[in-house]
Design brief:
- This protein has 2 domains: 1-33, no CATH class; 34-99, no CATH class.
- The protein has 3 helices and 2 strands.
- It has helices spanning 12-16, 36-57, 67-93, and strands spanning 6-9, 27-30.
- A two-stranded parallel sheet has the order 1-2.
- Helix 2 (36-57) packs across helix 3.
- The longest helix has 27 residues, at 67-93.
Length: 99
């Protein structure tokens, strides 16, 4: 009698958003995503200072442009910064945070 297991390693912030329903009993997973509330707090810790910075450095200097246009000019820089720099940096610092 044998039981077959698949081993999957989840890493990076993308692994955080892996649906829990896909993690079945027949799969041993290393790096199981943390609870959604910790994901939300971690994301906020990055988005808040980035949003304030972008607002101060970019949006404040765009004058009387409509808000939607200002936002559409600011977000192309904030999203890559958040995903490639801030979230990896923050998640590394919070690695010991209880799950």
């Amino acid at each position: 009698m044998a039981v077959e297991f698949a081993t999957h390693r989840l890493s990076g912030t993308g692994a955080w958003f892996e649906p829990q329903s896909r993690l079945t009993h027949a799969v041993r997973v290393f790096g199981v995503p943390p609870p959604r509330w910790t994901q939300a707090i971690t994301s906020w810790l990055g988005y808040f200072p980035l949003s304030v910075s972008i607002t101060h450095l970019v949006i404040a200097h765009l004058g009387d442009l409509p808000l939607v246009l200002k936002t559409s000019l600011a977000t192309p820089s904030s999203t890559p910064l958040m995903v490639s720099m801030l979230l990896p940096w923050i998640t590394a610092r919070l690695a010991r945070w209880p799950r």
